[in-house]
Amino acid sequence: MSKAGLSESIQDYLKSVYKxxxxxxxxxxxxxxKDQAVSxxxxxxxxxxxxxxxxxxxxxxxxxxxxxxxxxxxLEVIRHHRLLExxxxxxxxxxxxxxxxxxDRLEHVISEELxxxxxxxxxxxxxxxxxxxxxxxxLQWPAP
Length: 144
Prior knowledge:
Helices cover 55% and strands 6% of the residues. By secondary structure, the protein is mainly alpha-helical.
């Protein structure tokens, strides 16, 4: 499943689950609610929706984990975000402190073609302006 047909909210939740899963393994509703700044009921409703879309697996009281499809969407959003941060900083001269919020807004709407052009224009970078790694076009992390 590609991110194209998914709402910004769904994409944000998948990105959040990916981050939390990387840090803690299974993701609890409470941790997800806190990360998304929503009520546990809202986070629970979204987890159920994501499970129905087969983007994550959830076992009550045990936590949630992304499926392969969910992880792919999350990585695509992360890639867009980090490429945009670097583009905004290097090409447009925005301060590193200002690029995150702009990238948050834009990460959901850029096309794959624009993503590829930004990647090429930046010389296929491996890290964003904060030093975080950027997944490559195949959604693989750069070698450490």
